[in-house]
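Lab channel / #folding
Pinned by the channel admin:
"Please post every new chain as: sequence first, then the structure tokens as a reply. Keep commentary short and put observations after the output so the thread stays searchable."

First post following the new format, from NK:
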Amino acid sequence: MTTINLKSGDKAPEFTSVDQNGKPIKLSDYKGKKLILYFYPKDNTSGCTAEACSLRDGYEQLGNLGYEVVGVSPDSEKSHQNFIKKYELPFRLIADSDQTVANLYGVWAEKKMYGRSYMGILRTTFLIDEKGVITHIISKVNTSDHVNQILEIIEKP
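Reply from TO:
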């Protein structure tokens, strides 16, 4: 398990992976743009669906502020395609089935539930500027109102 302690002001780790359609996607694709890179545990679970729908509902507003949105989870391309279709998500999802991207960002870690330990995604959102620098890290994600949680940060003077 890799744990990278990223913080605001750090250069976001470069990654290359594939999206829901098997198309290559990398951080440098977003050079010159602001990016919301959010990591979530699993498609079609209650919290992850609420988070994705919050970002979907605020997608236009985020776009007007110059932000692109990309989600990352260990689910397969097919799972992502179904998730996008079912909830009409307007953004790309990275199929990080080998956890490469999650490990680069330090969000693949040991979790505990009902006394059982397992490896999984720590729900985390990274706000990345046009130069690829992390401006904010949200580790306490409010899944049902995530878009407003982000807007509060990026609209502060």
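NK: The mean pLDDT is 94.
TO: also worth noting, The chain has one domain: 16-154.
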